[in-house]
Amino acid sequence: MTSTAQPAGTEGRKAQPDHLGHVIFITAAAAMGGFLFGYDSSVINGAVEAIRHRYDVGSAGLAQVIAIALIGCAIGAATAGRIADRIGRIRVMQIAAVLFTVSAVGSALPFAIWDLAIWRIVGGFGIGMASVIGPAYIAEVAPPAYRGRLGSFQQGAIVIGIAVSQLVNWGILNLADGDQRGVIAGLEAWQWMLGVMVVPAVLYGLLSFAIPESPRFLISVGRHDKAKEVLGEVEGHGVDLDLRVNEIEQAMRREHKSSFKDLLGSKAGFLPIVWVGIGLSVFQQLVGINVAFYYSSTLWQSVGIDPSSSFFYSFTTSIINIIGTVIAMIFVDKVGRRPLALVGSAGMAIALALEAWAFSAKTAGGTLPHAQGVVALIAAHGFVLFFALSWGVVVWVFLGEMFPNKIRAAALGVAASAQWIANWAITATFPSLSEWNLSGTYVIYMIFALLSIPFVLKFVKETKGKALEEMG
Fold first, then answer.
1. What does CATH list as the number for 256-472?
2. Mean pLDDT over residues 101-111, rounded?
3. Separation between Cα atoms, residue 42 and residue 165, nearest integer Å
4. Residue 139 CA from chain centroid, whole number
5. Spatial distance between the Cα atoms of 309 and 313, rounded to a whole number of angstroms
6. Looking at domain 1-255, what is its CATH homologous superfamily?
7. What is this structure's pTM?
8. Do 1-255 and 256-472 agree at the fold level?
């Protein structure tokens, strides 16, 4: 998908107040894809132990079922842009909504473990598509003066989706009297957890019929009159619509469609700046953040906490995730990207060290002493908070800003692919590593958090306040 450049002469142009409400509705509808992205990524957390017992699968096999969705994510993200350029942004949203719906139904009614894995991959396609199409569409319909704030809807929707999935899981577990395999209306609790996503998936699909196609896509296929109509709806009819169409056309003609070949350097394979982007993406995942969202219920149960409490703690960490994300959105343009990243790395390292210490006291009976249990809970919430207020947001800001214009699209694709691969590696290895040594596993994540500090200091340049044209 082509990147969105801000046309000359649009800086400071604002939608009229009577149009801004309509723009917010359009943005919120598109951001439902982000909500489903977060929901589908995290909902499996509540079903892990039940799936293990239902299908009598070991840690390694279970990890592959959990992580396999990330294969679909990578493919969906890699193909969404090209598909959207051919058939439009709205059609891609509708495809993603169908994939989410089918995945929810299939995951709720599997007849074997491999069957569940297939539906997980289908859901992964939807996640990958939503991760690309939402931000791109919002950037293309948002008036320039509001683009940054409206663009934050996507990240906000993701963390809200994570929190809501944990709240729903907790509610379903309580209906099943605390038993993940307890039967409710003929289905086990974990099946309801995975199936409930049908509701927001269908809502996403319905909302996609209520919002307009991107003006940029309409212009690219020669539908100039329709593009003017949409521009009038989102920017106000006081805007010179012919001028706006001409500005967008000129910006599209100036854009360079980068390819993988453009990223290659003379010595180290990729250009140095591409390696920096890959490094940021990989460090973001190697600190173990997705363990908190995929396995937290299992983790707390493994140290003696009852299922209902473990689900509640998963929900509270999701709320902390939202709070941290809001903090990052407030400060990322005020204090800069590098300071937030460094503070986050230091905070995560300390929190992970405390978790490693606490889990080292795990008794032969699989429980933690009271003091260590309290420390583990506080440290886990602290880890999520420091991640959310730093690397959770900052990495995406860096990746959107740090690359030169001529390679931005291709470089961002490579960096995002590296992130999915690192995410898969952490997700697939945690169950086996935790069985080997839970405390040692957190020491490994702590080491990566510490290594990210010199990486940022030496290789990552501040992008705050710089125009995209200054990146090189």
1. 1.20.1250.20
2. 94
3. 7
4. 17
5. 6
6. MFS general substrate transporter like domains (1.20.1250.20)
7. 0.79
8. yes
